[in-house]
Amino acid sequence: MTANKHVAESAKFLDFHFSKEGTLLKYFGIEGQTYTMVNNEPVYTDHIKKNPEGLPIMDAIAKYCRDGNPSPGFNGMASFVNMKNLQRILRS
Questions:
Q1: Beta-ladder partners of 50
Q2: pTM flag (> 0.70)
């Protein structure tokens, strides 16, 4: 027996987390906002490279991405935005 009452949902989350779409979300953020695909490769947009807040690029990336952190989890407001994508995927 497990303490996890949402085993199926947890498995779906982990499947998503390690999928291509999950990896892009985790490391590049939101397609069309923080990156675009160019020649089948993700490229950061000016929202990251020349962000309106004047943040250094790594700080701008950290607002939207896991930026190299090894595990899933809360990452500020970006997690709330990304959670909508995750909820859509878990429902499918």
A1: none
A2: no
Domain that holds residue 38: 7-91
Per-residue confidence of the chain (92 residues) as pLDDT tens digits? 568 888 888 888 888 888 888 888 888 888 999 999 998 888 889 998 888 899 888 888 888 886 555 545 444 445 545 555 555 544 54
Amino acid in the structure at residue 11: A
- Residue 1, in any domain of the structure: no
Task: Say if 45 falls within a structural domain.
Answer: yes
Which residues does 34 contact at the CB level (< 8 Å), separation at least 6? 28, 44, 45, 47, 48, 61, 64, 65
Taking the CA atoms of the chain, what radius of gyration do you get in angstroms? 14
